[in-house]
Amino acid sequence: MGLFDIFKKKNIVEENEQIAENDPLENFPELLTTKLLFLDKPNFDSNQILTEVKKHFENVEHSFSENSFIFSFSDHPIQFADATIPAQCTIMIPDQGKSEVELPDAAFQQNWHWAEANQTAKNCTYEILITDLMSRTLPYKERLNVFMDFLVAVIKVTQPNAIYSAPGQKILNPTDIINIWDTDKIQTLYVLCNVRLYNAGTDTGHKELLMDTVGLHTIGLPDFQIRFSAADENEVANLLWTYAYYAYEFGDIIVDGNTLEGLKTGSKWKCEKQFSLVGPERIVVNVTSD
Asked: What InterPro entries does the record point to (predicted)?
């Protein structure tokens, strides 16, 4: 079984004892952003992209300029106090003559899922930015589905060599994204979310590890973190993926004092919301074993 095998899941979530409607610790939705990375400057055909996008969205309006392409989806309206506007996604093209890829250091640190991720991204010389706009107030599941449908459509046309997910701080194989989204949408969080591993030991040499999820915070849900010393990293990673999908399925309902099932059947691990120990700063559910 490979490290952080997200395909192995088990039903480990305990029913929460209570639900609080006004928990003061919460994350607020952020812009969803990915970068398409290319070894060479791609042949960019906006009409081909529009044709592919229309396979996912029945009603699409578009506005094209030299360096930006905006797609609006009227079937996904967002209501403001004085207006209703459609959800939008954009493609941002670098300035003419620019040939450069800019990624943060974090992009190269937690790519357990793809052995060639770092080298592939470092070899790329051109990037295209994909974001959503005016969409943060959509229900988070609807919002993520709109963004992913759009992203996959653009990937199919432009055929990048790698994808950088800003929410998940990871580099992904474009073929994997297409295959998973087209055939196995139970892995809805594959692009958005990541599970990370850190050494949290003290100067005295005591072994302690920290694992967390990152990415859920961008759609307004809590991430999760666990500190441990003796458990198997793969098992903890699978546990965190299960927690992540639980939060995605049921929403931000976990409050202090609730329990989640741990690594052993019947175990109850306590939950407490707090600020994350590792950046980006966000609210996480800190899970401690019994």
From this structure: DUF4261 (IPR025357)
CA distances from 228 to 45, 191, 222 (A): 50, 26, 20
Supply the pLDDT for residue 82.
87
Helix axis angle for 174-183 and 140-158, nearest 10°, is: 130
Residue with the two structure tokens 């005295």: 204
- Whole-model pTM: value is 0.90
Domain ranges of the chain: 33-187, 194-288
Q: Within 10 A of 113 (CB to CB), how many other CB atoms are there?
A: 20
Among candidate residues 261, 197, 268, the one with its CA nearest the CA of residue 227: 197
Choosing among 3.90.550, 2.30.30, 3.30.1400, 3.40.50, the CATH entry for 33-187 is 3.30.1400
